[in-house]
Every structure is written in C-alpha cells, then in structure tokens.
Amino acid sequence: MHIVENVREGIKSIKSNLLRTVITAAIVALGIIALVGTLTAIEAMKAKVSESLAGLGANSFDIKDISRRRQNAGKAQKVYPIIKYKELKKFKQLYRYQSTSGISTNLSWTAEIKRFSKITNPNVGVFGADVNYLILENYDLDKGRNFSELEVKNGAHVVILGISVANKLFENEEPLGEEVSFFGRKFKVIGVLKEQGGLGNNSGGDRQVIIPIETANAMSSQRALRYQLTAAIDRTEELDFAMGEATGLMRAIRKDQLGKEESFEITKSDSLSGTLDDIAGWMRIVALVLGFVTLFGASICLMNIMMVSVTERTREIGVRKALGATPAKIKQQFLIEAIVICIMGGGFGVIFSIMLGNVVPILIGAGSFTVPWLWIIVGLIVCIGVGLVSGYLPARKAARLDPIESLRFE
C-alpha cells in the first residue's frame, strides 16, 4: 500500500470516527495555540516596543562616571574623579560625529513639589537637562513646550512636569503659565510630559520634573552633581565606530594616561532593550511549557483513540495481511492516520494562533501584525512529532497482529 493510499485510508477512518477525531484535533489545536499564539503575541509586542525604544538604545550611547558596583574579583576598586560638567560641555563642542547629544543630571530623587496647599509625596525626581533631553529620552509633551537655548544658558526658573505631578497639583486646572515651588524656589510651568508608565528614564518616569541644567547647577549648594551625556548617532550601523571616537576624545579631555583604563564609563543605552529581551525570553519559556503540557495531553488522548481504532479494525487488519500487506505497511498506515489528525489540529491551531496572537496586542495598542514563520514551522513539526509518538504503539500493535486470529475477531 502506497503512502497516498495510506493517507486516503487514514482520512476515511477519520470520517468514520468524526466526533472523537475532532475532539483530539481540537486538543492538538489548543496546544499549538498555547505555543504559537503566545509566541506570536510576544513577537508582535516586542516589535512594537522595540520600535518605540529605538531612540533609547538602538542608536545611542551614554558617557558617565564608572559605576561603584563594578568590582575586579574582590580587589579594591580604584576611585576616579567624577566627570565635571565643563568636561562634557567641551566634549559636545569637539565631538564632530553626526549626532544629537545632551547633558543631564539628577538633583534629587526625593523632592516635594508644592503649589499653594497642594503638595506631592516626597518621591519626585528632579532632573537638570538641556534642550535635547526630551528627544534623547524619547519623551513627548502632552502640552506646552521644551526649554529654549536661552533659558538653559541663563538658568531660567522654568520647569516641565511629569504627568503624575501635574495631575496631583493641577487637578482639573490648566498648569501652563502657573507656578510651582521646590527647594525654596518658584518655577514657571512651561510643559507637561505625556504618560510614560514604566518605559521612561526610570520606573517613576511620570513622577519627575525637569529644569534647565544651569538652574540645577546653581541649586546644587556646592554639592558635586553627577552628570551624564547621551549621544544619538544618525546612522545606527556606525554606533560602535562612533563610540570609539567618543572614547578617544573623552580620554583626551580627562587626560587619561596611555595604556591605563578609562576614568569614565561609555555604554550603549540599550538597557531597556536588554530587559525587554529577558522578559520575552521568560515568556517564551512559559509558552513552551504550556504548549508542551497541552500537547502531551493531546498525545495521550490520540494514543488512546488509536488503540481503540486498532481494536475496532482488527478484522480489517487481518484482511489486509491476508491480501499481502506487510507489517511495515500496516504500521505505516496507522502512523500516517495519527499524523493526519495532528496536522489537521495543528493547521487550525496555527490559523487561530496568528489571529489571536496579533489581535490581542493590536487591541491593547502594543503591537503590529506579525507572522512568526519560524514558530509556525516549529509548531507543525511538533504536530508531526506528536503524531509519530502517539501513533507508534498502536501502529506497532496493529503490525504484530496475527492475520489468522485477526480474521476470527468479531
């Protein structure tokens, strides 16, 4: 019996036991939906978020002080002088690579912002920044405007509020043009940021206020602030080369000796992308576990159905053997039948997976339409594998039946 004939016989057998076949195929489909559907949703959301975060890491790097957490195998860490504001300003002036750069600093993480009798919790971050800060951090303004070059240069008392701060102090009121105060000084509100959620510069991206960096310098009360320069390169593929150029220039500015390590840290601004990859990786593992458990249940169900099918068709098997069918051909027939059932379930599962995996991210506004061809192929291969594993024992049993005893079976 040829493979095509075996497929026909398998479909014929499926039609004769349609209800249990549909139930088994549905279980297989659920396993594929759990696997491919979840992975499709992950890829769709990851593609969208990665696109949104492009300005935060795909083409930019940071220059900052060496992290105190860096240790060298338990050895005492060498302490370098902190990076000065004038050094980063000099870097901006001398760096000739095509880029957009900005300097920022954190004045406080525990500020209270006041307006008349209203006051925020003492958990507001106060950042000093130049005119490029919003662009480099991918912040959008909900209302108002950015700083002007003149306001940054003169240290004007103007402020841009995070949305949480604005809602707390200006409930049902227009904040633009009004004044707020912190650290004993009054600031005119010129802008309000759009909601950032957990994707801002920090987990409290909505609980921050931004002032001109020269203003922050004047408010530091002789306390040494830690500054950071972020540069976004026009051509992403040249990022490594641009970082090399920046390293050489910064070493010259900092007067780092030849052969010694840098007294600063220069890194790609891709921490959010890395975090996103880690989360997506764990979600893939969860999807694989769910898919495996569901497909394992489907394989047990399919094996049971095939065992029943072998028993019901014992006489048919005896007739086939009497007409010359070899044990290998009988085994092949039942294996193909099991695979056909799995492919039917897998096919429907893939279709629903693509639909559900894309509909959910699109509805919540976190994804675009994605077809994960790799996972579709993997899902179908898994279906074939499930069919082979589930159908092997029933097919082996059918192939070993004695033709004489099978013909006597009632």
TrEMBL record:
The keyword Transmembrane helix applies. Residues 289-403 form the ABC3 transporter permease C-terminal domain. Its main location: membrane. The chain crosses the membrane at residues 21-42, 281-305, 334-367, 373-393. It is a multi-pass membrane protein. The keyword Membrane applies. InterPro entries: ABC3_permease_C (IPR003838), MacB_PCD (IPR025857), Macrolide_Exporter_MacB (IPR050250). It is found in: Cell membrane. Keywords: Cell membrane, Membrane, Transmembrane, Transmembrane helix. It holds the Pfam family FtsX. Residues 21-222 form the MacB-like periplasmic core domain. Belongs to the ABC-4 integral membrane protein family. PANTHER family: ABC TRANSPORTER PERMEASE YTRF (PTHR30572:SF4), MEMBRANE COMPONENT OF TRANSPORTER-RELATED (PTHR30572). This is ABC transporter permease. It comes from Agaribacillus aureus.
